[in-house]
Each structure stands twice: as structure tokens, then as C-alpha cells.
Structure of Nucleoid occlusion factor SlmA:
Amino acid sequence: MSVKTGERKHQILQMLAEMLEQPRAARITTAALAARMQLSEAALYRHFASKAQMFEGLFEFIESTIFTLVSQIVAAEPNGVEQARKIATMLLTFAQRNRGMTRVLTGDALVTEDERLQARASQITDRIDASFKQSLRHAITSGTLDPSIEVTALAAALTQFVIGSWLRFAQSAWQTTPTLHMETQLKLILGAATNDR
């Protein structure tokens, strides 16, 4: 029974993400990926022009998932500070559930890959930072955040907390989970800035 093109592409990306879950995995070659899938390398290249394109596919999945969830949080939660807290929680939970994707987001899996992939990871970080800024600005206008708070600095602190947690998770070979102490840490970052303390 033949597998549809879209389905096969999804399977290839799924296997790539699975291989990336191996802590400190060596550079993943298309030969190793093809072998794991019991396909020829030529069969892989029928679906993706290059390995960089496979990573692009992973980025598309990550962006679509993360920012759809960000939009849902913003639409459902009127409190800007709570939006920021929920966005951070979602990002850490996403990493915990998708270890291979975490290595892509931190750039760890991209060290020997095409330079433009690092730029793609950086763009996602910028979008996360912008999402935090938007929620925090909303919190100031709605009166739940102290108006003297420097939004750019607080958004940067949240972004760096998320990325630092992802990185620690990858570096610890998945032992130090990103959600460990998460609630306490978010209280420390956001608590001092709110008007209802």
C-alpha cells in the first residue's frame, strides 16, 4: 500500500524529531535518517530537496503550534499578566513534550547545519519576545501591571527564562525538566511587577 506524499513528509519529520531526542546526538545524516525509515536517500529527496528543508518543516510545525496556542491564550485570558504567565507555561510544557523540537529551538541541533536555520530559530525567539511585550502592554493599560515597569526589560526576562529552561533541559540530557520550579520562578519574575501584590 502506497503512502500519500503529505503523509510520508510527516513521517520523515516525525522520525527526524525522534532522532533529535537522543541527548547529545551526533549530526544526523540523511543516510541515517533513510536507514531508520527503511527508505533510500533518493526517496527522502523526493519529498525534501535538502536536509535544511526538513529542518524548515520542523520549524513550520513548531511556529504553527506555538503561535496558534499563543493566540488562543490571548483570546481566552483578559488579564495581561496571566496571559504572559500562561504563554511561558505553554512554552515550557511544549518543550517538555517535544524534546527533539527543543534541540531545534535552542539551536543545539543546528550547529553543523545551514546558517539560515539559526536565523529561523532567532526569529521564533523574537516572536516569543513580541508576544510577551504585547501581553505586558495590555496589562499596563488594563491596570494589572505597575505602569512604571519597563515592558521591554520584563519581556526580555521572560524570554530568557524560557530559553534558559529549554537549554538546561537539553544540556541535562532531559533530566532537568523545564517545568520544574516553573510556578515559583514565574512568580518571582512577574510577581514584583503586578499591582495586586
Summary: Residues 13 and 58 are 6 Å apart (CA to CA). The first helix runs from residue 5 to 20. The chain has a mean pLDDT of 92. The chain has nine helices and no strands.
